[in-house]
Every structure is written in C-alpha cells, then in structure tokens.
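Example 3.
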Amino acid sequence: MSAPTVAVLAATAPAEQVGEPVVNIAIFGAFVLVTMVIVFRASRNNRSAADYYAAGRSFTGPQNGTAIAGDYLSAASFLGICGAIAVYGYDGFLYSIGFLVAWLVALLLVAELLRNTGRFTMADVLSFRLRQRPVRMAAALSTLAVVFFYLLAQMAGAGGLVALLLGIDNAAAQGLVIAVVGALMIMYVLVGGMKGTTWVQIIKAILLIAGAGVMTVWVLARYGFDLSALLQGAIDTAGEGGETLIEPGRQYGASALTQLNFLSLALALVLGTAGLPHVLMRFYTVPSAKEARRSVVWAIWLIGIFYLFTLVLGYGAGAIVGSERILGAPGKANSAAPLLAYELGGVFLLGIISAVAFATILAVVAGLTITAAASFAHDIYASVIKRGEVAPDGEVRVARITVVAIGALAIVGGIFANGQNVAFLVALAFAVAASANLPTIVYSLFWKRFNTAGALWSMYGGLVSCILLITFSPVVSGKVDPATGESLSMIRDTGVDFAVFPLENPGIVSIPLAFLLGIVGTLLSKEKPHPEKFAEMEVRSLTGAGAEKATSH
Amino acid sequence: MSESPQETDYQRVQRSAEFQELRRRFRRFVFPLTALFLVWYFLYVLLANYAHGFMSTRVAGNVTVGLLLGLGQFVSTFVITMAYARWANRTQDPVAERLREHIESGAILREGTPGRAGEGSPA
C-alpha cells in the first residue's frame, strides 16, 4: 500500500525538501507578529523585579499550567519522541513516560512549598535557612549550568530544523536563521519579561497541542480508530522484523550496557523535572500556592494528553511515512512529525507544524533565558556581589543586560554547535537538575538537621560529578558506529578516545552520590542548627503565611 | 530548641497542635504516595528493560502487555494528580488558610510579616 506512495512522492518532491518554505515562513511570521503585539501590550507594567521576573504573580493556575506545558514540551519532546517511536517503536514511548511521571514529584513535593517560601529563583528557597551567599552562589551556578546545556541543545537543534523545514542546507544561511531566532527571543524577553515570555509559551502550547491533536485524529481515522490496526500498519511498513516495533528493546535492549544506560536515563528523567530551574521559576508567576497546585494539575493533563498524541503520531509516521524515508530526510528521526504532516495535510499542515516547531524553540529558549537572567541578577549580582544593597530597578537593569549577553551566547553557541552531535545535552541537563538541585530542594524542605555544608557538598558534588562523567563518557569521545566506522561522539575524530566511563547518562551514579553527599556533608559539619529559621520555613511552606503576594497595578 | 533563649513566633506556631496536625497529615499523605508512584514507575522501567518476553505478550491484536502497562502509567499519573488536588483542596487548604490568617493578622506575629535582611524592598 505505502510503497508506491513513497515512490511517487520521492519523484515529485526531492528528498531534501518537502513542502513550501514560503508557506512555512509565512505561518511562522504570523505567529511572531501576533505574539509580538501581545508581548508589547502585556509589557506596560514591567518596572519592578516582581513584574519582570514573576509577571507580577498575576497569572491564573490554568494559564500558568498551559505556559508550563509550553515551556516543557520542547522540540526534543515533540520532534524527538515522535521520531523515536516511528523508528524504534515502543522504546520511544517508554522515554515519554519518564517525562510525564516526573511531574508527580513536582506536584507532591515541590511546587506549593517552593511558591510559599521563595520570591524569584530556586536559590531563594535553597538559601532560606542556610548561609545566604555560598548557597546562593552554588544554586545560581547549577541553574546557569542546566540552562546553558538546555539552551545549547535547543539552539543546535534549530539548525537541523532550518535545513528540514526551510530547505536551507548552506551552513552560513542556517547560521543567519539561528541568529534571527535568537534576536527574536532577546526581543521577547527584553521587552516582555516574564509576562511576555509566558504569553509566548501559552500561545505556543495551544498551537502545539491543537496541531498534534488534529493530526492524531486524522491518523486514527485512517485506521478506523483501531489502535491495533495502526500498529499493524507500522509493522507492515517496516517490513522484515517490524513486529519488534511494538516490543521493548529495539533501541535500548542491544546489550547489558545499553539497558543500564536506559535505567540511568529513566532515573534522571523522573527526578530531573522537579529540579529544572526554568520550571521552578514558573511557580512564582501565580498569586498563591493553591494556584501553583492548579498550574501543575493543568500541566500534567496537557503534557500527558500530548504524549498520548505522540504515541499515535509516532506509530502513524512509522506506518504512513516509514522509517527508511524518515532516516533518509535531512533531520533524520526529527523529521518524522513534519513528514507525517505533509503526507496527511500537504503543504498547509506541514507549514503549521513547522511554524509550531519554530515557535517551540523560541518559547523554550525565552523561558530558559529569563531564568538565567533572574538567577544571575538576583542571586549572583544582587545577593552575592552587592550583598543585597541594590535598588530593585538596578537589579532588573542587570537582568536585562544579562538577557542580551545570554542571547548573544546562545546565538554564537547555536551556530558553533550547528550540525554537531549535541543531543546528549538535554539528558545532561536533566541529570544535573536531578543531582545538583533536587537533593538540596528536598533536604531543605523536609530535613530539619540539613545545613550549609550538606547543601554545598550535594550541589557541587552533583554538578561536578555529572560534568566529569559526561566528559569521560562515549558521548564525548570514542563511540564508533560498528557498521559504518563513523564516529557517533561529539568529537568526530575516531582516533581520540578517553571514554573511561561506559554509560552515556551519569544519573545512576551522580544522583545517589549527590543525595549521599548531602547527608555526609551535613553530619560532618559543626555548623550550629537554626531551629528558628527552620520553623519559619516550615510554617511558611505549609501555610503560605508571609508568602509573596501578587502585585496590583 | 531549648538552647535558644527566646522562642520566635514561628516556633510557637510550629509547636501548636493545629500546625503539627497539618504537617502530620501532609507527610502521611504525600510521602507514601511518592514512594508508591516511584516504585510503580521503576517496576515498569525494569520490566520494559529486562522482561522483553512478558512485555511483548499480545493481549488483543497488536496491543501488548507493555503497551497496556505504559498506558497504565498515564492513568495512574492522572489519578494521583486528581486525588492529591481534591485532598489538598478539601483537607489542607481550610486549615492552612486559618493558620495563615491567624499569623498575618498579628494574633501570633505581633510585628507583622517578617522581611528578610538585605533582600530589597517589597515589589
């Protein structure tokens, strides 16, 4: 059935390019125009720090929940998971489950307590009852590290997307598009602050989830709304060995080592989300802990439903497009969703999905940038360097300068990393969040005895162990494709091999290590406990007394 | 606690029976639930990783045990989310609100809500 279709399409549309770049750009341009108008309108009251970093704490739970979904559903989870399911089948689905279940950690243990005790950043909570400056510094450094890894992965991904969607395969032109995306992002964050960023994320989330929903119904309709028939379609298109698409192990089951790799990844995914600084910062944009709870409930429903869509879309792409054609396209596995859109709805649907993919990068990068700027200006500049002796508008000015600096860094990093194999950076960001941030968040909220030394040991121990283990792992050097002899590592020279740590994800080592270091550091320190600070933190976290209120204009 | 010469107002709230009950209920609900969903998640991951035969068992047509357990993770996540939200809205919020009003009205903290040293002016 599908083989002739593929042949016809291959004849009419060259493999390098499907669809009409002009349509893709026009739809994306419309998105930019609409969001820009909203950002400018929303940015009238952006004077104080609470306005700039936390949108005046004036978003409702459902609005913030939608923005969280917009922040969380990155290009990696949309294009990446669809592609992984199309090519590897069940193992791709397995991946999306970790991303969803992780939200329960945020809902039950973190969101409300954090909203009640902090003001703008993760460090506010971590340093609440510990020694301010060293803990703020450590929390800010780990925030900046997570944001940097995540940002670089997004920007590098933009290059591949440009090649796929706009038909630009020249590196200089791709660099130009990356620069345009970066410049737009700087505009949004500079002008709109957290309020503008949030609206971009809300609009993007609605477009993404609605687009994926329409495609899901479309795919299911082709198979008479019979999931089994859809799976059969994917099996038939894959040809010999297609049955393994509905069985686990196609991607991670190759050897004991790849299985251990998956276990490590599963651990980092489920514990990382509640330690992602750009996710945590979103909880400050609502007026109360109750609204923070509503945000997470909304986010869980939206994200969960979206991942169910990707299950259908992934198998749909496997059935209708076929993994051979997907892997032959410029974006490799990432092109599964766009190619499926083209097969279903032609140029127009592809244009919408492409625009949504760009909007996704824009929204995620904007959220990361404002988080990094807040962390630098509020934690490092105002609290550590100036010791709190700074006017609030001075702090916001520093934050705005930081936005431009980070935006420039993202553009340069994105152009430099374009075409590089840096997909591991997202997994690394989750591993750092789970090892450097989560243990200290949990200990400082729930463990009375926890102290500054424990926090520093855990945060620096988690951060350094993650980075070292990744550096000496096969993702950086020494991984060779046995079939083609080509390097699969970041360092392309197959002669260079310093991968002494066999796993591609450090989580299984670094996460338990960081939890342990928190305990050891605490017990070895002679620091006197502060029962009065713990009492304040505990009472405030559970009752919301003294929590930051929404600003009124 | 005995070594600090003067007990702060927050410590007094912390010691109160009403707060202790709020805290105990919170921990009794949230900790076992967290343990439960983590065990269920890792059970699922281990099965998918090491029990390929079992997970590949066909239940109906091409629908496998693995697919059903995976969808079960979605269902359990949704159920836990709604159960927690319902419980927190009904059981915890009224108590937390009463305590908060009590504290912020100055009945306990006579000096009002405390600002933190060196953190700039309120927005």
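Chain A touches chain B through 72 residues (CB under 8 Å). Residues 172 and 344 of chain A are 32 Å apart (CA to CA).
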